[in-house]
Amino acid sequence: MKNIRFATLGLTAILGASFLAACGSTATSSGSETASASSKAESTATEAVKSDSVITVSSDPSAIPEATGDDTTIVVGASPNPHAEILEQIKDVLADKGWTLKVQEYSDYIQPNAALSSGDLDANYFQHQPYLDEYNKENGTDLESAATIHYEPFGIFPGKTKALADLPDGAQVGVPNDTTNEARALLLLEAQGLIKLKENAGITATKNDIEENPKNLEIVEIEAAQLPRSIQDLDIAVINGNYAIEAGFTVLKDSLAVEDAESLGAKTYGNVIAVRKGEKETEKTRALVAALQTEAVRSFISDKYEGAVVPLI
Question: Domain limits at 161?
């Protein structure tokens, strides 16, 4: 496995991706089991992801602070799906309080943090906490989470092979090539009984930690954003929820398997609003978070994505 080192803006960088590990029992992609997993995931993850490190704001839109002064534009960097789509839902409610929300879309996971660090953004919304922690560690930055909004289940999607039971010996399996998300993909493969990882490999697992591989699967590391485009050349691929959505896949219907509600992904790796250190309590941040933590946004996420994105608000 490649040991990805996050580069600063302007250097060649490998794309990141939006989640981490999946352990626990299998949840399949069809029928009542899928619906049950989606519902269970929502209730389990909501409690598990919240922590004292994020600000808690009332779901009442009246909690959104009124804009004051001359700087009333909130600039947020986001990946197109689902993050930018979710942000679009709060433009009007922010406008009612005197704020203008500008959403800057990014197709990779390096630039949003670099732009936030440099001051070009007020916040970003695309990543989970472990990814943010790793970025800070590798780049000497001190970005922090202001709130956790949702999580996106990982899925195993069919390429040349249409069922996990039909995987041939030596089948090619695409996984994200960044450290945090490759671990999550490998843990999902392990949950399906396709491989066995070394004991305690957990959320730091790489393909070098594969202890048993009865079908001699070839683990192919690919940039997370490229996995949907590469799937026709692979037998199967483990794809991040947001990239699956962007490619037109329905995670709970099109996947061969999806993360269980008890997985680390469901419990720990929700997508966060990130800001610069010391700016969690600014008027802009509080307005942004309060606008996102409303019942209207929760309902939009649940209705729009049908379990492919799970609200944590």
Answer: 154-258
